[in-house]
Amino acid sequence: MAAPTFSLGSLPVEIQCCIFRHLDPVTLIAVSQTSSHYRRVISPSKLHFAERLLALELTEEHGGTATIFRPKHNIVSPDWRDPACHSMRWACTDCLRLLPHTAFGNHALLGLGYRKPEPRSPAAAPVSSWEPSRDAPHWRALKRHQQRPDVVFEQKRRRAQYAGAAAADYGRYTRARDAAHSPPTTSGLRVVDGGRDEMARFALAHERRLAGHQRRLRRCLECSWRRGALRPRATRHDGVVGGSRLVPLAHSRQLRFGCGLDRYFPGFAAPAGNGPPARGAPVFAVYRDDARDFPFTLHMVRCPRCAAWQELRAFRVGEWWARWTVGYGTAPSFADLALYRLRYRLWQEAWARHRDDEGMGEFGCRLGDGFREEEFNLAEEHFRWLERCRQEVLENPQVLVDWALARDGAALT
């Protein structure tokens, strides 16, 4: 004799609620949209729709390839220049949309609590907070547990321990690890054998467990600005930073460019017959031998007319205060090359006389040896190429107009 079967709708509402409590966020919203009865029983709130988006952003179909971030070395995989990033989406829990990374500030994507968790990590498991009532015993018990003094202290201790591990500060890490009843201090301590490996393992485990645990608070730039979170602020040394109330400015991704032309005019095709030098311009970094690029922090600015967020280069402003640009000073003129060449020769003669002097040290030798003549010649070659580009643009400004009109102002590269 076959066992009797029952449809979901024939079960009592109490049993239906027990079943709905175990559904993932995507399935829960899908069930609520099948009939008016289930919509009344489930009655999803904005939080539940946001949890649905947070689950969808972790799928390859809707969110794209997963992002892996290592804060110690500032490495993002895939890189922001990778074509795969164009199809990646993140959820804004305020406007309830899946948006590209250019619509978010840097902390909203790379902060530990806001970033996407790694695939198959505990934080990547979809969790729904749906309950028949927000006053259910489950929520009251969870709230009491989170407010216990020992639980609060343990959370603070592990955050301090992770901060020490991420910064490779062994003293801060061990004091937070061994803390029992008092807040950990930040005094230094010598790294013992195996200390770096221990910190690396703890940092990785902490990230896999807690990455993305605050994604429900993630908001896009537009929603953050409308809530007043992107207002200008006063600092001790730089004055008022962060744009203005009507034209807010937010930190975006950090990318490496070969020269200032690539940073302010990315993708600009040089006129025919005036290609760049074969080798990139030297950076003259003391601890980066043969460096050919430099990291620039990009910024997104909201246009007060079209209400669109675009990269800072689209506005072509020249103010230094409020950090409107990332440039420094005024570019040298073409007549200054002879003076630079003379100063370089004088420096070479002085370095040859004092290179072996006592007290010069390793740092002084690296500093002096880093300015090789071939590097100086290559930098001068790049400067002459940029000057030729400037002259050709002055003779035919249409090439620059075509470049500006053909690209997306919100693009970072």
Tell me what the structure shows.
- With 413 residues, the protein is mainly alpha-helical.
- The chain folds into 3 domains: 117 residues, no CATH class; 74 residues, no CATH class; 138 residues, no CATH class.
- It is built from 15 helices and 9 strands.
- Strands 7-8-9 form a 3-stranded antiparallel β-sheet. A two-stranded antiparallel sheet has the order 1-2. It has a two-stranded antiparallel sheet with strand order 3-4.
- It starts with 12 loop residues before the first helix and ends in a 7-residue tail after the last helix.
- About 4% of the residues have low confidence.
Order of helices and strands: HHHHEEEEHHHHHHEEEHEEHHHH
Main β-sheet: number of strands, strand sense, barrel status?
3 strands, antiparallel
Q: Quote the distance from N terminus to C terminus.
A: 68 Å
Low-confidence stretches: 186-191, 319-330
Give the amount of beta strand, in percent.
5-15%
Shape call: globular
Number of helices: 15
Class derived from helix and strand content = mainly alpha
Summed up, the domain count is: 3
Strand order, largest beta sheet = 7-8-9
Mean pLDDT: 80
Number of DSSP E strands: 9
Alpha carbon gyration radius: 28 Å
Helix content class: 25-40%
